[in-house]
Amino acid sequence: MVKTGEIASDATLADIRDRLAKPEDHVATVLLTMQPCRKAHGNAYVRIGITGTGKVPYHKVVFLDADGAEQLFGSFDGRNMDAGNKVHEDTWSTRTMSFAEVQALLGEIRGIKPTGLTV
Q1: Where are the domains of the chain?
Q2: Disulfide check for 75: which of 12, 60, 94, 111 has CB 3.0–4.6 Å away?
Q3: Residues with Cβ < 8 Å from 90, sequence gap 6 or more?
């Protein structure tokens, strides 16, 4: 069993935004890593690593294939693509955020109020 840090097993970027070392920079970087997946597959989701403290968490970008199964697009070290990063399923949050949710989070961090959204 993997020992986790201070991050809950079901945490998302939104849940830990106040812990991030540089929230705006980090969330913008996550969006940049999600964009190629979204372009290639029509959707993109992100899971954060839960074994650290949440200052610059690892993240993995996933997409749903035609059958609705989650597929790995890439794993990232919190700043850049980490091609050598091994993906162990028990080190990632159980919840994802969509590309649109991460965009909205970045807008909130930047002080931009969402428009046209229904609750």
Answers
A1: 13-109
A2: 60
A3: 1, 2
Angle 29-24-41 from CA coordinates, rounded to 5°:
35
Q: What is the DSSP letter of 90?
A: G
The predicted-structure confidence for 50-107, as pLDDT tens digits, reads as follows 988 889 888 999 999 999 999 999 988 866 655 456 667 788 999 999 999 999 999 9
Residue 20 contacts residue 31 (beta carbons within 8 Å): no
Task: Give, in order, the Cα–Cα distances in Å from 28 to each of 14, 76, 106, 118.
Answer: 13, 13, 7, 24
Is beta strand 70-76 parallel, antiparallel or unpaired with respect to 59-64? antiparallel
Nearest to 57 by CA among 110, 1, 4: 4
CA distance 2 to 65: 28
Strands (E), the chain: 45-48, 59-64, 70-76, 97-98
